[in-house]
Amino acid sequence: MDMEHNIGPSDRLTRIAVGLGLAVVGLATLGGLLGLGTTIGAVATLLGVVLLVTGLVRVCLLYRLLGIDTSGSR
Q: What is the Cα gyration radius of the chain?
């Protein structure tokens, strides 16, 4: 099942950078290095991983549902 890309280059880089940042902050929080709380740590980690993965595979299912395409292929 090959899905068509719907994330463009600048969107991709932003997702990867923000995703990495959120994942690091979330994991640091869950590891006790930052005192932001377990819930915030878990949410930040999850959101960071989702952004990172969508940036790497260049497919966003939410974009697909909303009819958004930043890849310039349409």
A: 14
Residue 66: how many other CB atoms lie within 10 Å: 9
Q: What is the pLDDT of residues 6-50, one digit of tens each?
A: 999 999 999 999 999 999 999 999 999 999 999 999 999 999 999
Compute the distance between CA of residue 45 and CA of residue 27 in angstroms, rounded to an integer. Answer: 6
* Phi and psi angles of residue 14, each rounded to the nearest 5 degrees, phi first: -65, -45
Residue matched to tokens 């790497």 = 56
Give pLDDT, residue 56: 96
Calculate the CA 6 to chain-centre distance: 14
